[in-house]
Amino acid sequence: MFVDKASIEVIAGKGGNGAVSFHREKYVTAGGPDGGDGGRGGDIFVSVDINMSTLMDFKYKKKYKAENGADGSGSNRTGKDGKDLHISVPLGTLIREKESGGIIADMSDAATVRLVRGGNGGWGNKHFATSTRQTPRFAKAGMSGEAIEVELELKLLADVGLVGYPNVGKSTLLSVVSKAHPKIADYHFTTLYPNLGVVYFDEGASFVVADIPGIIEGASEGAGLGHDFLRHIDRCRLIVHVVDISGSEGRDPIDDFEKINDELRQYSPKLAERKQLVAANKCDIAQDSDLSERFKNHVERKGHSLFFISAVTNKGIKELTNAMAKELSKLPPTAVYAPDYVPRRRDMGTPEELVIETFDDVWTLEGPWLERLVQNVNFSDHESRMFFERVLRNAGVIGRLEEMGIKDGDTVSIYNIEFDYFE
């Protein structure tokens, strides 16, 4: 099954908890604290697998979680870091943040992208030993990893896109100009998903052609198959518009030509302006020479180059292939989407939601609001430290500590920093 859109949730690993432990050894009467730190949670990365051609793997598995960091242990042993998780996607996959639609990455090359970071491990009790506090019986918990919901959207990386009504001979043309073997039959919508073929036109030179499933009137609004696959033309540098010039199905080629271009225009005005070659197929069975002439005049008035071809007899195929190669040599490279996603701030909570715990003369404060505040303060700078203290006082945090009985000289521990409290 060809799947070109999927939504998944990615969750980085949580950091391991710090350990509370004391050195125990024969003949050592007063071993100090030796609790190790927790390991870091695993990250989640995404990279390209050139052997993948569909997002089928993501149709049934919707949640991807990296490994948590291991807890610390005694003898100053740090917990093992969580294993990173690597997700593979097909070349050309666009990764968007689901809620905002912002582009996180365009997987159009071999680069590896980190989607979410694992949480840091918590400190063991060895960090909290001082000359006056020699047996700290507490440690810190590991921090949660990042999490995000993303949409994966596959946009084929092809130089040339074949467009046109169903049954006009696009698949046959692809099989003739390349080594692709698409399904070919004499009924509409034989092609149910895009097919790719490589065209070799010179020594060491080639380009990729995509056969886009038949577009019909109303495709941009969801009719037929075109709505699902119009996105695959987005990256094509050149469009080859295939039209049935024989009139074998009783349709007017001029009317077909205009309706397909109108659908491209409604889907994307930029797409409608892209360079286009017109291939009048089935000319070997065309009966109405006046119709062919009228179509030729119509297309040339629009500024397009027209090629009368027969994908069955190979008539005009070489000329069309050479024209594709010539136009591609003058066109810019395949479009790559620039990331525009701005990570949203995590739910920071409020100062009132802080968790305050006391262990003897040590007060630990934790909470998303405080975590964010700490990340934005330079504690090596005096003014920054004064700003930090003012924010804590204005938010009522110092007042809560005083109400809970904090005394002069007690230690306040906030994530990776400590300071002594004095009124």
Short description:
By secondary structure, this protein is α/β, with parallel strands linked by helices.
* Beta strands, count: 18
Determine and state the CATH class of the largest domain.
Answer: Alpha Beta
End-to-end Cα distance: 69 Å
Biggest β-sheet, characterized?
6 strands, mixed
Mean pLDDT over all positions: 85
Task: List descriptors.
9 helices; GMP Synthetase, Chain A, domain 3; Rossmann fold; 23% strand; Spo0b-associated Gtp-binding Protein, Chain: A; 5-stranded mixed β-sheet; 423 residues
Q: What can you tell me about this protein's structure?
A:
The chain is elongated and about 105 Å long. 20% of the residues lie in helices and 23% in strands. The chain has a six-stranded mixed beta sheet, sandwiched between helices. A five-stranded mixed beta sheet has the order 3-1-8-5-6, with no helix packed on it. A four-stranded mixed beta sheet has the order 15-16-17-18. The protein folds into three domains: 1-154, Distorted Sandwich (Spo0b-associated Gtp-binding Protein, Chain: A), CATH 2.70.210; 160-330, P-loop containing nucleotide triphosphate hydrolases (Rossmann fold); 348-423, 2-Layer Sandwich (GMP Synthetase, Chain A, domain 3). The chain is an alpha/beta fold. The mean pLDDT is 85. Strand 5 and strand 6 form a beta hairpin.
